[in-house]
TrEMBL record:
Family matches, as Gene3D superfamilies: Alpha-D-Glucose-1,6-Bisphosphate, subunit A, domain 3, Alpha-D-phosphohexomutase, C-terminal domain
Keywords attached to this entry: Isomerase, Magnesium, Metal-binding, Phosphoprotein
UniProt similarity note: Belongs to the phosphohexose mutase family.
Name the record gives this protein: Phosphomannomutase/phosphoglucomutase
Superkingdom, taxonomy of origin: Bacteria
Membrane-traversing stretches: none
Cofactor: Mg(2+)
Domain called Alpha-D-phosphohexomutase alpha/beta/alpha: residue spans: 26-155, 175-272, 278-385
GO MF assignments: intramolecular phosphotransferase activity; metal ion binding
Ranges for domain Alpha-D-phosphohexomutase C-terminal: 414-483
Lineage of the species this protein comes from: Bacteria, Pseudomonadati, Pseudomonadota, Alphaproteobacteria, Hyphomicrobiales
GO BP terms in the entry: carbohydrate metabolic process
Amino acid sequence: MFPIPRPKLIANTYAFESEPMVKPTGFREYDARWLFGTELNLMGVQALGMGLGTLLGQLGIRREIVTGHDFRSYSASIKMALVTGLMAAGCRVHDIGLAVTPMAYFAQFELDVPACAMVTASHNENGWTGVKMGANRPLTFGPDEMGRLKEIVLSAAFDLCGGGSYVFVADLAERYMRDLTDRPKITRPLKVVAACGNGTAGAFAPQVLEAIGCEVVPLDTELDHSFPRYNPNPEDLKMLHAIRDAVLEHGADVGLGFDGDGDRCGVIDDTGDEIFADKVGVMLARDLSALYPQATFVVDVKSTGLYMTDPVLKANGATTDYWKTGHSYIKRRVNELGAVAGFEKSGHYFFNAPIGRGYDDGLVSAIAIIDMLDRNPTRRMSDLKGAIAKTWSSPTMSPHCADEVKYDVARRVVARFEAMRAAGEPVAGQPITDLVTVNGVRVTTADGTWGLVRASSNKPELVVVVESPVSEARMHEIFRAVDAVLRENPEVGAYNQSL
């Protein structure tokens, strides 16, 4: 009988090598993330595999699954521990090897396999690991599936029916890239900086962009799991500034930055300005709504308010649905509504057919951006950006807050803003005109300036975003007001980056 996982074990001890360790908070809203060695050990990963195989059986899903791993020093060993657990629970495992996360999603379709389990810490710093899982392509797990998986694993309620098997799929990367590039080349000459932060996407992004006709300037595309320059995260200002410098040095038309597991894409325009992903989404929505009249788009609550006010989207009959932040939530909503696309401020984009298959893929997003430029041969990226209304918006800012308390803190913040609204108390000097509480709280004042606070779905942090259509000064004012409410809670720590 496999032991019940322990929440904490000490490394370099008999117990650490003899018992599974799985910290309960590693089961997030829609995927799993742990600090490897301090919150999870290899036997804990085996338990996760056993639990996932068991869950597939309970869901009535064929016990057959795709798995792959990102480029970190420990990811391959974690994947193989996961594989042993999956096989013990009767799964036929299709191992696609080193991969970006969208390759695992693609493999579900290409190999006709119902489930996936991709070992990745995404953009998290080294030391983190995790698994993105799904069993109903193109969707990934949500809170219901994650809650049930957590119960199975932590109670060791495994159905170890045996009979599992393993096959290595040697050519999946080539099939994936061929699928992306089997299309006409662009007609406009475009010089593109492809920045990968030494993460997994470096093995694939330059080749794909060259194959569709771009002149590619590679930036930090050599795989190096120490991430020597910065974390591969296109919301990180260090990465964005490095892309800016390369765009200006090489006179590039656009800079594209991919995160550690290749499912997100960040953008720098030809002048070196970063365009936050929600604004790029507005530009893409304008472009796509001209091709698909009456289009529906889904965006997360961290995103700009321009989707509701943009005159081009209104003229094209487009509608926008604001939904919960998180790749699994937006992906599911795009699927439910049959939306043309979904956009997250983090850079996760979701395109339904004929552009994509509904899942988030940084390279599909990059190609959509390139195609937008190709359809506008007389306009540069900065022109397309300049055509949308000016707003002043922050990057995503994350103050530390322990996993054990972050949701309670977020609830307190929601309640505080609700009480302020009920009492007619102003925020940043203006009355509250709207509160959206579908995911944390988004508080909007009379001049359209707004701030958002929510609990991070994958790290011990809160998430803060602010925007003003009025001025940079108003953006700073709403940030100070939101931060003042946060500071009423002593559990809230320092920001990872701030205004």
